[in-house]
Amino acid sequence: MTTQVTKGIKVSVQTSFEGTFFKNYKMHYAFGYTISIENQSKDVVQLTTRHWDVFDSLKEMEAIDGEGVIGKKPVIRPGKSHTYSSGCLLASPIGAMKGYYHIMNLTTSQIIEVPVPTFKFAAAFAMN
């Protein structure tokens, strides 16, 4: 598990290899990840946007920006957390992601950038 705390927001990531499949005559590698965002601050916060850099050992880096996570902009009270699962498809069995969330402090209206540390994807058969 990968974990990082920034300004009272703890982000933890767990990854998994989900399998392979062919699409358009090409092999694809499916990876899943579960992210938990825990509010360790004293203020109520809301996740508003996300940014991802997706690294695939056989392709160029891909940047992805969007609102919320999996269609939600969760409000997280002090001492509470929001957990969600998602995934990505890679052209190779090895890759990684990193990024950040924009999180608004609902008490001060300040937006902070909370980094999501680099988390790696690797199919067991691809490792030495």
UniProtKB/TrEMBL annotation:
One Pfam family it belongs to: DUF525
Matching Gene3D superfamilies: ApaG domain (2.60.40.1470)
Domain of life of the source: Bacteria
Span of domain ApaG: 3-128
InterPro entries listed in its UniProt record: ApaG_domain, ApaG_sf
Entry's Gene Ontology BP terms: error-free translesion synthesis
PANTHER family attached to this UniProt entry: F-BOX ONLY PROTEIN 3, POLYMERASE DELTA-INTERACTING PROTEIN 2
NCBIfam families: PRK05461.1 (NF003967)
Protein's recorded name: ApaG domain protein
Source species of the chain: Croceitalea dokdonensis DOKDO 023
